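Onboarding guide, step 5: your first structure request.
Type a short instruction followed by the sequence, for example:

Predict the 3D structure of this protein.
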Amino acid sequence: MPILPIDTGRYGTPEMKRVFEEETRVQKMLDVEAALAWAHAEVGNIPREDAEKIAAMASTEHVKLGRIKEIEREIKHDIASLVRALAEVCGSSGAYVHLGATSYDIVDTARALQLKEASGFIEKRLSDFEKILMEKALQYKSTLMIGRTHGQHALPITLGFKFAIWMREVSRHIQRLRQCKERILVGKMTGAVGVQAGLGPHAIKIQELVMQRLKIKAAEISTQIVQSDRHAELVCLLAMIASTLDNFATEIRELQRPEIGELFESFDLEKQVGSSTMPHKRDPETCETTCGLARIVRSLVIPALEDVITWHERDLTQSSAERFIIPETCILIDHMLFSMSNVVTGIYVDEQCMLKNVELTQGRALSEAVMIALTRKGVSRQKAHELLRKLAIQSKTEKRHFREILLEDRVVREKLSEKEIDDALNPRNYLGTALEQVELMVKKTRGEREARGLA
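The system replies with structure tokens like these:
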């Protein structure tokens, strides 16, 4: 019966879950067995008609999951059970099933086939999210808001600038994933302890042919298993992606607080319920779920790193952990990317509240702009900083607008006219290169997408 929330359907997209379903895993292993038989026939080790028979029967249509499990209950070995179940349906040709191979030739190579599909889905999700963020960066390029450091008002920025920063973080993950795939999408056909003794004099050619048939690369060298640093790299990368999504979701959650009220998750006003008891609630539930799932993904980094360690040429410590780690990380990251793409696509922006919040500190957020204006008039930067620090404190203490305090100060009035003070206090005059940076980053991202064959 379903137990975990992936099993019950709460988390995970149908396409990604299909990659890791038990029947899919079995079919991938059967594909590897078929490729091995074909390669043996190609080098003359077994009759071609026997290889063709094995290939024809290497399907869950013929090799039933129930039969594999029935055999496993008796012999206590999952891959040997699969081999026996395949051999049973192949008649006399079954004598050549699994010839020269070890269990993890089949498991690791089948896993590479699963990861090829899974990483393809994840890359597409990332690319789709990158495009959404690119569109939002342009849409809100000039939308003024306050920038915050340490949770406090700092200097004005634009919402488009924030989205452009998020966009480039996603772009870097795409680059990392594409590079990572070169190392993780590898199989092996090397037999016990990795020396290929059981595969005969054509062993190297057999491995080459198997991987060619399956359209993946062979590990350059391996023991009885593909070394787990490869899988650990992938899990670490997926944990980084999870942390990025956690960061985005946390920012949206913060900005949705009523005290700030600048960004909001979309909410179905006709049907959606925010609380079982408080009718007024409109919670950022998707972002909160993303933050929670990120904790699970990050927690999987530890067992992934522990799996790098093995006794000698092979032990079984990795096997049980990998059965959890790899499907969970891929399924959860895919779910999180899908969810956060929807959040950003439908995000509600309260531009009026953003403008109102810029003024919460009564002009003090532009103290640096006034300081720079004074230094241009010959005032020492250090003296200007100390003067404006004191004037900002006075403005806050007396609850008076910073402009009033500046107009009353003798040093400021000696150097700056009223118009110059007003210009310095205009947040749109102190955005620096924010708009230009948005345009440059969008141009860069478009170029990268075109190089990847995307619009």
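Each response can be followed by summary notes, for example: Residues 361-430 form a domain with the Ribonucleotide Reductase Protein R1; domain 1 fold (CATH 1.10.40.30).
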